[in-house]
Amino acid sequence: MLKIGVLASGRGSNFQAMIDEGKADNLKVSIECLITDTPACYAIKRAEENGIPAFYINPDDYKTKDLYYHKIAYELKSSGVGLVLLAGFMRVVRKPLLDAYPMRIMNVHPSLLPAFRGLDAQKQALDFGVKVAGCTVHFVDEGVDTGPIIIQAAVSVIQGDNAESLSDRILKLEHKIYPYAVKLFSEGRLRVEGRTVVIKGGVDNNGFLTNPPV
Amino acid sequence: MLKIGVLASGRGSNFQAMIDEGKADNLKVSIECLITDTPACYAIKRAEENGIPAFYINPDDYKTKDLYYHKIAYELKSSGVGLVLLAGFMRVVRKPLLDAYPMRIMNVHPSLLPAFRGLDAQKQALDFGVKVAGCTVHFVDEGVDTGPIIIQAAVSVIQGDNAESLSDRILKLEHKIYPYAVKLFSEGRLRVEGRTVVIKGGVDNNGFLTNPPV
User: Fold this and answer.
1) What would the mean pLDDT of B181-201 be, rounded to a whole number?
2) Cα separation, B23 vs A122, whole angstroms
3) Is 1.10.3720.10 the CATH classification of the domain at B107-214?
């Protein structure tokens, strides 16, 4: 069974989504550990409630950022983790961890990449005036939200949306497509060719590319 | 009834979509003229077949680009045109025409803007490896595909898509949302606030944000 490690800095709602999908038996994976850079984050509470070992690794304890990621890679490897999931981890992953898990680190981002990278993507989208928004699960590379795209889902922007209402709607989709992407990986169906993630047998996008209830 | 002028350089399939929607009585507008920069383009044939006056205006006949757009603005105004539609017009519209029709010029672009501006947007999207693509109807400003977004529609990228198959699928959506945007304009339901196009009464996005048949 695929062993997963999760990196989170905050509430970790996508971490919870993985836990729930695992319990619902939709996802045949084992979540081995949570690693966080934030001592009191809610994700730790979720880990404890679900008997998942949680490690707080303090960046300030390490001379360089690279050393910090060597340490994280060490802990993940020690736990036998085969796939790393970023779930609201508010740092840019650096080479030592990327090299330890090449195309084995996923992230979910609340926009239809390549549009609106970085922070406050939903607000960026509203400020730009888009009518279609969404979210993206991608493999992590050296850049910020630049890696090969595994799956995306779109939602309509509704008249009168604010950053919060749009974020809530997108988050519901994140909780659907992130576990789905992990499922595809766990079934060995993902192959990266250049920038393109080829999905063995294709992917049924129904339910992802849908309207929200208006 | 709203009088429309169309600018096209090529086959003008979106021009045809407007003609068809008008005939089907879904669109209460009158297409007053076609203006083209390309003498032998197929759009001219469509105009002739539908009794729409077609003007070939040769850029080489004008000392400056601005003069060229002054001439186009003159012809459109002479025809009483109230809304200008770009339908595969392969030039960047300049100030004289923009000033004559402020937020009265629309364009359709085969991507979910702000992603993949400019030429070969569908190929750009495939090369980037996106899983969701689409099209955008927007008001035209000084930039290339940068103006306020009126409506967008999304489609899934299907495993094995090439630029042609994806373009075909997106084009079907263009033919739906472009006339729809014109309809909203003709009903006085569009108001531009900064970068955001507010649609009076909101918009029913059903049918736009949908999956293609897989």
Assistant:
1) 93
2) 40
3) no
CA distance A29 to B125: 32
Kindly report the pTM of this predicted structure: 0.93
Q: Is A109 a catalytic residue?
A: yes
Q: Break chain A into its structural domains and give their ranges.
A: 1-102, 107-214
- Note the ipTM here: 0.91
Inter-chain touch A132–B114, beta carbons under 8 Å: no
Q: How many CB pairs under 8 A join A and B?
A: 107
- When the candidates are 3.30.565.10, 3.40.50.170, 3.40.50.300, 3.40.1190.20, the CATH number that belongs to B1-102 is 3.40.50.170
Note the pLDDT of residue B207.
47
Distance from CA of A210 to the nearest CA of B (A): 6
Cα B6 to its chain centre, rounded Å, is 9
Q: Which residues does chain A have within 8 Å of residue B209's beta carbon, measured at their own beta carbons?
A: 132, 154-156, 209-211
H/E segment holding residue A77? helix A65-78
Calculate mean pLDDT across residues A26-33. 94
Whether residue A214 has pLDDT greater than 50: no
CB-CB under 8 Å, A112 with B114: no
